[in-house]
Amino acid sequence: MQLLKQCISAEWLKLRHSHLWAVLLALPVVSALIGCANFSINRGALSHEWYSLWSQVGLFYAEFFLPTLIAICCAYLCRLEHLNKNWNTIMTAPVPASGIFAAKLAVAGMLMAGVQALMFVLYYIGGKVIGLVSPLPPELFGWLLRGWLAAVAICSLQLALSLRIRSFAAPVGIGLCAAFAGLGMYVLKAGLLFPHSLLTIGMGVLSQTSLSFRDQLLFCIMSLLYAAAFGGWAIYRLRTSDVTA
Asked: Which value, to the nearest 10 degrees, does the dihedral of the CA atoms of residues 137, 111, 96, 75 take?
């Protein structure tokens, strides 16, 4: 446990002077602005106040901006290892492969929790600026929490890709393509079979109908399975394959 804490602290040190923070702030702001603007333009047809606003803000955020943000974040967390032959140093250090991956996933998860909290603030402020007076949807915190759980599962996949692919852009491109594929899988009612579709299901962006207890349980199980499966694959590859420094 102490070793994991040290690995997490090392990951935070890498981010301290980075420009990743600007991206973490900018993309949620842009998605909120687009969603609020679209709601204002079509307000005559969107009569369910906070629910309608969430359908607009959440659509842009969960379907396009958040998956892209996850891919960028994970690629950046692996960027330093791919520079200046740093893999040679890391893989000969007294740190297990599981510790390397777990630390990166923990940091990515914490960053996504911050992004979800920021999205809540932007959604609330946007609604008040627009003039919504009804109470916030009681499902809101469930949407945000399930969105975070799905984001962690996707982080596990994107980290697995970024740990093996030296290019920064390639995993980001794969993540963006996967976001569109996830939307297609949701439309085909096979969302649980694809990790990126979990964002659509969990955050209620296309349907604000409350999930049943069974559906919520199945959602959580699939999210954890994806996170464990991709994490296990990444750790196995780190242990058994030579890295490209």
From this structure: 110
